[in-house]
Amino acid sequence: MLLGTKRRQVRTSGTSLRDLIDALNALSTGDLAKEVLVSDGGLDPKFKIFVNGIVSDNLSTKLGDGDEVLLFSIIDGG
Fold first, then answer.
1. Strand partners, 16
2. pTM of the full predicted structure?
3. pLDDT score of 74
């Protein structure tokens, strides 16, 4: 757990998913962005983001007051 908790409430109204990742990254001492973003700044395909239960891989997706955002890593294996 990069944030030390499974659940965290962050004010994001009027901002994007990328802004949320940046805010959470600051709380994780820079480790979150290293894990969830690729070198060009996009979302690593090993991760899925759900906004209010709908998958969104567009980091410019705007967030509103009360939105619930879930960030999951996809389990690798074979």
1. 62
2. 0.77
3. 83
